[in-house]
Amino acid sequence: MNGSARATCANGVPPRLETRPPARRIERLGLLLGAMALAAALYVFDPAQHRVFPVCLFHAVTGLNCPGCGGTRAVHHLLNGNVAAAWRCNALVVLALPVSALAALWFLLRPAGSAAGAGRVAMWLPWVVLAVAAAFAVYRNLPGGAWLSP
User: Fold this and answer.
1) Is the dihedral of CA 6, 11, 14, 16 positive or negative?
2) What is the rounded end-to-end Cα distance, in angstroms, of the chain?
3) Which terminal residue of the chain has fewer beta carbons within 10 Å of its beta carbon, N or C?
4) With contact defined as beta carbons under 8 Å apart, do 47 and 76 qualify?
5) How many CB atoms sit inside 10 A of residue 48's CB?
6) What is the pLDDT of residue 89?
7) What is the pTM of this model?
């Protein structure tokens, strides 16, 4: 390799490239503003009355309820203070929403350069979440679990 192709300092060591930290604060602000806009739209527009939000493709094709069916309506009812109606729409969303909100707040409020907790999610956790969602979906489509259908 030609020596002139490499930039070096006087002591023969290549100069250190300046690296910018990722724009974590702007990304977090964007996520927060997006979540707030979605929450405001869900507060104002009842998904059962307005077709602002998409319908469940799985339900439209199969006629079965997926784990998320009724979730948008449940969040609308929660935002309007009607917990009983939210529970009737989707009990899993009502139970999972506080946990998800706490996890999102932790993600948004941790220090920008912090790697604290990054990669510390147990490897089994996504599998447990998937198993619970699958069990909920199967049970709510059985005759005994019809009370969980929206």
Assistant:
1) negative
2) 69
3) N
4) yes
5) 13
6) 94
7) 0.71
- Domain ranges within the chain, ordered by starting residue: 23-110+123-148
Which of these, 92, 58, 57, lies nearest to 75 by C-alpha position? 92
Q: How many CA atoms lie within 13 A of 113 on its CB side?
A: 2
Helix (H, G, I), strand (E, B) or coil at 149: coil
Q: Hey, what amino acid is at 141?
A: N
Q: What pLDDT score does 51 carry?
A: 83
The pair of structure tokens assigned to 145 is: 């679990």
Which tokens is 4 given? 């002139």
Mean of pLDDT over the chain: 82
Tokens of 26: 């702007």
Q: Is the pLDDT of residue 71 over 80?
A: yes
Torsion, Cα 41 35 96 133, to 10 degrees, reads 90
Give the total residue count for the chain.
Answer: 150
Neighbours of 68 (CB within 10 A): 17
Contact predicate 94/83, CB 8 Å? yes
Amino acid at 132: V
- Note the pLDDT of residue 117: 55
